[in-house]
Amino acid sequence: MFCINCFHKSTSVSNSRPHKKQPQIWRRRTCANCHAVFTTYERPSLADNTPIDLADGSTDTFNLGRLILSISKAFTHSPNDAQYSSLWLAQTVEDTLSTDRKSISPEDIEATTHQVLKKFDELAAVQYAAQHKLISSTRKRGRPSLREHGPRSRE
Questions:
Q1: CA torsion, points 118, 124, 127, 128, in degrees to nearest 10?
Q2: What pTM did the predictor assign?
Q3: Which of 5, 52, 58, 151 is the most core-located residue (most Cβ within 10 A)?
């Protein structure tokens, strides 16, 4: 690991601890050149470790950037959340998917992303579900419509 202050190539780890709730490792590092002390958080990457099994039998790698874009499209009602929360939410999905799995499917990614969005923003979860066809807007027979048929006449 290189130093974040002087970009020297040699640093030493003086302390290291696993995170209690997430698949992360916290490390305290010291630079051999400038003796600066800094902290790093290391987490597993799905792109390197877990293949995605596609419907046609082939495999693909996890793409965090694609997931960030997909999540940000769900925030049409809140551009601020689309800009600032999409990365954090995508990393939460990646952390959730990376725990003890040999392989994942696109449906696993969609379902997990929908659950994470549901906890963060209900409207974004509905938007995401509609984009990925997790919900449909077909009405059941016999249920009354909320809209009246035809224009209202004013008397």
A1: -60
A2: 0.65
A3: 52
Per-residue pLDDT in tens (0 to 9) along the chain, 155 residues? 888 889 999 899 999 998 887 777 889 999 999 999 999 888 777 766 677 888 888 888 888 899 999 999 999 998 888 889 999 999 889 888 877 667 788 898 999 999 999 999 999 999 998 888 887 666 666 555 444 444 444 44
Output the CA–CA distances (angstroms, integers) from residue 63 to 31, 41, 82, 90, in the order listed. Answer: 32, 20, 18, 10
Where does the chain show beta strands of DSSP type E? 11-18, 25-31, 37-42, 51-53, 59-61
Q: For residue 23, give every residue at least 6 positions away whose Cβ sits within 8 Å of its Cβ, in sequence order, or none.
A: 43, 44, 95, 98, 99
Q: Indicate the domain borders of the chain.
A: 11-42, 46-131
CA dihedral 77, 79, 80, 82 (to 10 degrees): 100
- What does the alpha-carbon distance between residue 26 and residue 42 come to, in Å, rounded to a whole number? 7
Would you give the end-to-end CA distance of the chain in angstroms? 78
Neighbours of 75 (CB within 10 A): 23
Q: What residues have CB less than 8 Å from 111, skipping those under 6 apart?
A: 134
